[in-house]
Amino acid sequence: MDSKLCLYWPPHPGVKSYYDMIDASVAYGFSHLEGFSNLDFSTPDTENAKRIREYADSKGISFSCFSVYINLVGKDSSEMAERLRGYAEVAKILGSPYLHHTVVNDFTDPENVLPYRDGFFKKGIEEIRNIYDFADSLGVRTIYEEQGFLFNGIDGIGRLLDSVNRNVGIVADFANIYQAGENPEEFIKTFGEKVVHAHVKDIALLPERGKEGLKTLSQSFMHERKIGEGIVDIKGCIDLLKACGYNGFYGIEYTAKSFEEMKSIIDTLKTMN
Predict the structure, then answer these.
(1) DSSP labels for 68-124?
(2) pTM for this prediction
């Protein structure tokens, strides 16, 4: 499994640019990197993408996925859709097979999404179809994870797949499913054959929001924890994915405090193969 690990977007020690991110990937012994719409890609700059792709190639690093944080159902949805098409072009230039993006950008409180869910869902499905068709014309496949309160939980992802009428893929995020009051094991058992990418992260469920807690439908709050020290059965999720025939990458989603801390997490994950 070690060859299938890659860095993902949370801040990493000493990383202030994509060039740093590529160098860090090499230092950790990775061959792949999952990109995100931050650092050098706070805007979808294709010329910059060409330069970064050239640098990545020179270091032996490929892109496993490119992820974008965006809101496609707000008042400026047309502008955001155009922005996302720009990121699809970035993904193609980087050589990423997948474009992973959000649809609603509010993951903090269900009250901001659930009362408007049907309208958001209809608009979101329309935009997903549009971006899928555009990305597909570039040779890039769009993929979606269980996230927030629109497309989350087994019913939410099932509704997406039943409605979209496109060959979208699924990202198995090991922690996001807890926002819907469910668990990743049942999610993987249900959608394992559709999973093409995975995010490894760990959480605690606490009664208080604190500074950064995300509210769940079970009225608790999700808080990030070092991978292996929270409630997520990381090895169990990996084993279930493998049983479904999964052979994709695992993006490590954790805000490491030091190079040594991230290295210890990587070493722990390698033992879970």
Answers:
(1) E---SSSTTHHHHHHHHHHHHHHHHHHT-SEEEE-S----S-GGGTGGGHHHHHHHH
(2) 0.95
